[in-house]
C-alpha cells in the first residue's frame, strides 16, 4: 500500500524545522545588537527601527550599502570554520557606509545554502551579530534560503545590506578634499575579503588545498587566509566626532586595490603619489605573491597589501588623526599628499568604478 508523505517540502529537500532551529540558536546573539530603537524582536516578516532620532537632524541623509564576502566562503567551508565569515560580511558592508561619514543604524543579512545545518547557520549569523555589536549596528532581520539541487549540501553564500545616517553638511567626499591634504593609511588585518580568486588560482597552480599545512604559514594554508576583515567603523566615527572638519574623505580599500579606491575620493584635477616605503605588507601577501611568481607590485590592483582604509585629512590634523587611530588599535601612518594642478599622469590610475575622480599612483619600494 502506497504511503503519502506528510511533508512534501521536506521530501523535495527543504527542511523548515532545521531553519526554525537555526533561528533559535542565533536568537540570543542577534538580540544583543538590539537597542530600544529596534521594535518587534527576532522573527518578524520585516525588521522595525525607530527613526525618531533623525528628527534632531537638520537634513538627514540615509546611506546604504550592500555586499557579500565573495569566494572567501570557500575557505570557511573547506575548514568547516564558520564563525568569522560574518565579520567579513559586516566589514564589507558597514565600513562602506562610514566612508561618507555616516553612522550605521541597522543591517539585514541573507544566506543561501544547499542544506540548512542549524549549527552552521547559527555560527555564521553569530559572527555577523558580534561584528554588528562592535560597530554599533542593529541586526534587525535576515533570511536563510535552502536551495537543494542548486547548491551542494555544504555550500553557502552570504550577503547583507545596511543603512546609516549622516547630516547633509557633514558628508565626506572629494568635494571637501583640498590641495595640501595629507593621505593617512590605516592598516589591514590581511587579505580581508577581496582577491581570493587570485589566491585560489595560486594555490591550484601549486596543487595546495586550504587544509594543507605550509611551513611558511606554520599550519594549514586556509587558517591564515581566513583571518577576518578588520572593522574600522567605530574608531573612524569617533575621530570624525571628536575632530570636526579634520577628515575630508575616506576610502575603503576593497576590490581594485589602493590606487583605484583612493582615486574615487580624490577630486578631478588632483593627484596623489602613495609612498610604498612607508610600510611593509604582511607576510601573507609576500608568501602568496612568491608562490604565484609575482612581485608585490603585480598584485596592487587585486590585494590591499596591508592598507585597509585611507583617510584624506587636513594637513594640520594629520598627526592627531594618526595618533588617535593608532591608539584605538588601528595602526595609521602618512603615505602621501594631495596636489591640485596639472602634471603628466602616465602610470596613474584615474578614477574607478564609474567615478570621474583624481589620479593616484604608488611610488618607491616597499619596506622590507
UniProtKB/TrEMBL annotation:
A cellular-component GO term for this protein: cytosol
InterPro entries cross-referenced by the UniProt entry: PurM-like_C_dom, PurM-like_C_sf, PurM-like_N, PurM-like_N_sf, PurM_cligase
Residue ranges occupied by any PurM-like N-terminal domain in the UniProt entry: 53-166
Subcellular location: Cytoplasm
Catalyzed reactions: 2-formamido-N(1)-(5-O-phospho-beta-D-ribosyl)acetamidine + ATP = 5-amino-1-(5-phospho-beta-D-ribosyl)imidazole + ADP + phosphate + H(+)
Domain PurM-like C-terminal: 179-342
GO molecular function: ATP binding; phosphoribosylamine-glycine ligase activity; phosphoribosylformylglycinamidine cyclo-ligase activity
Pathway note: Purine metabolism; IMP biosynthesis via de novo pathway; 5-amino-1-(5-phospho-D-ribosyl)imidazole from N(2)-formyl-N(1)-(5-phospho-D-ribosyl)glycinamide: step 2/2
UniProt entry keywords in alphabetical sequence: ATP-binding, Cytoplasm, Ligase, Nucleotide-binding, Purine biosynthesis
Any single GO BP term: adenine biosynthetic process
Enzyme Commission no: 6.3.3.1
Domain of life: Bacteria
Leader sequence residues: none
One Pfam assignment: AIRS
Similarity comment: Belongs to the AIR synthase family.
Name assigned to this protein: Phosphoribosylformylglycinamidine cyclo-ligase
Organism: Pseudolysinimonas yzui
Lineage: Bacteria, Bacillati, Actinomycetota, Actinomycetes, Micrococcales
Amino acid at each position: 500500500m502506497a504511503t503519502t508523505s506528510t511533508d512534501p517540502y521536506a521530501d523535495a529537500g527543504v527542511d523548515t524545522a532545521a531553519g526554525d532551529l537555526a533561528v533559535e540558536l542565533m536568537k540570543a546573539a542577534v538580540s544583543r545588537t538590539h537597542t530600544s530603537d529596534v521594535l518587534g524582536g527576532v522573527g518578524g516578516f520585516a525588521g522595525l527601527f525607530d527613526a525618531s532620532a533623525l528628527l534632531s537632524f537638520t537634513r538627514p541623509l540615509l546611506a546604504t550599502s550592500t555586499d557579500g564576502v565573495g569566494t572567501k566562503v570557500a575557505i570557511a567551508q573547506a575548514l568547516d570554520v564558520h564563525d568569522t565569515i560574518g565579520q567579513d560580511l559586516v566589514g564589507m558592508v558597514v565600513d562602506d557606509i562610514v566612508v561618507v561619514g555616516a553612522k550605521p543604524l541597522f543591517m539585514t543579512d541573507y544566506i543561501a545554502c544547499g542544506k540548512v545545518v542549524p549549527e552552521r547557520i547559527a555560527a555564521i549569523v553569530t559572527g555577523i551579530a558580534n561584528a554588528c555589536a562592535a560597530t554599533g549596528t542593529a541586526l534587525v532581520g535576515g533570511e536563510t534560503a535552502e536551495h537543494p539541487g542548486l547548491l551542494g549540501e555544504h555550500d553557502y553564500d552570504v550577503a547583507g545590506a545596511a543603512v546609516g545616517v549622516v547630516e547633509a553638511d557633514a558628508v565626506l567626499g572629494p568635494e571637501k578634499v583640498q590641495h595640501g591634504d595629507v593621505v593617512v593609511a590605516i592598516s589591514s588585518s590581511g587579505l580581508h575579503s577581496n582577491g581570493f580568486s587570485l589566491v585560489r588560482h595560486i594555490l591550484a597552480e601549486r596543487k595546495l588545498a586550504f587544509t594543507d599545512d605550509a611551513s611558511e604559514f606554520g599550519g594549514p594554508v586556509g587558517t591564515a587566509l581566513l583571518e577576518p576583515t578588520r572593522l574600522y567603523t567605530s574608531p573612524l566615527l569617533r575621530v570624525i566626532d571628536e575632530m570636526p572638519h579634520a577628515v575630508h574623505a575616506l576610502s575603503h580599500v576593497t576590490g581594485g586595490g589602493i590606487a583605484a579606491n583612493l582615486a574615487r575620493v580624490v577630486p578631478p584635477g588632483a593627484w596623489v603619489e602613495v609612498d610604498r616605503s612607508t610600510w611593509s605588507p604582511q607576510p601573507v601577501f609576500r608568501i602568496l605573491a612568491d608562490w604565484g611568481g609575482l612581485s608585490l607590485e603585480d598584485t596592487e590592483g587585486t590585494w590591499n597589501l596591508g592598507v585597509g582604509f585611507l583617510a584624506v585629512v587636513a594637513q594640520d590634523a594629520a598627526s592627531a588623526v594618526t595618533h588617535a587611530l593608532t591608539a584605538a588599535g588601528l595602526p595609521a601612518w602618512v603615505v602621501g599628499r594631495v596636489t591640485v594642478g596639472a602634471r603628466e599622469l602616465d602610470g596613474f590610475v584615474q578614477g574607478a568604478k564609474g567615478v570621474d575622480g583624481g589620479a593616484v599612483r604608488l611610488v618607491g619600494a616597499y619596506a622590507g
